[in-house]
UniProtKB/TrEMBL annotation:
It comes from the Bacteria. It comes from Mycolicibacterium fluoranthenivorans. It holds the Pfam family VapB. InterPro entries: VapB-like_prob. This is Transcription regulator of the Arc/MetJ class.
C-alpha cells in the first residue's frame, strides 16, 4: 500500500489556518507510508495535468493530530510521487499536537 491509510474526511478539528499561515510553515520530507489521506477520490485531470501546481501552494498540506499525519491537500502530488517510485514527498506539516498556530 502506498499510504498508511485512506479516509473519507478529516478526523481532526478545524484548524482555521489561512493560506498565509500555511506558507510560513517550512516544508519537510514525509514518507508516503506515514500519511493517511483525507479523501478517497482523486481527479484524474489534476493528476495528469502538467501545470497542476500553477495555482496554489507548491507543497501539499498535512496535519499531524494525535500522532498521525493526515494529508489534507495535495493528494495528486503524493500519487504522482508514488508513480515515479518515490517514497518521500516534501509537504508543509501543521502539528496540531503542538498547538502552534503561525501568526499571520
Amino acid at each position: 500500500m502506498i499510504f498508511k491509510g485512506v479516509r473519507d474526511g478529516k478526523p481532526y478539528p478545524e484548524h482555521g489556518l489561512s493560506y498565509r499561515q500555511w506558507s510560513q510553515i517550512p516544508p519537510r520530507q514525509i514518507r508516503l507510508d506515514e500519511l493517511v489521506t483525507t479523501t478517497t477520490v482523486l481527479a484524474l485531470d489534476r493528476l495528469l495535468s502538467e501545470d497542476s501546481t500553477f495555482y496554489g501552494d507548491l507543497f501539499p498540506h498535512a496535519v499531524r493530530w494525535q500522532g498521525v499525519i493526515y494529508l489534507e491537500d495535495g493528494l495528486h502530488r503524493a500519487v504522482r510521487a508514488a508513480l515515479r517510485n518515490r517514497t518521500v514527498l516534501h509537504a508543509r506539516v501543521y502539528d496540531m499536537d503542538a498547538e502552534s498556530v503561525p501568526q499571520s
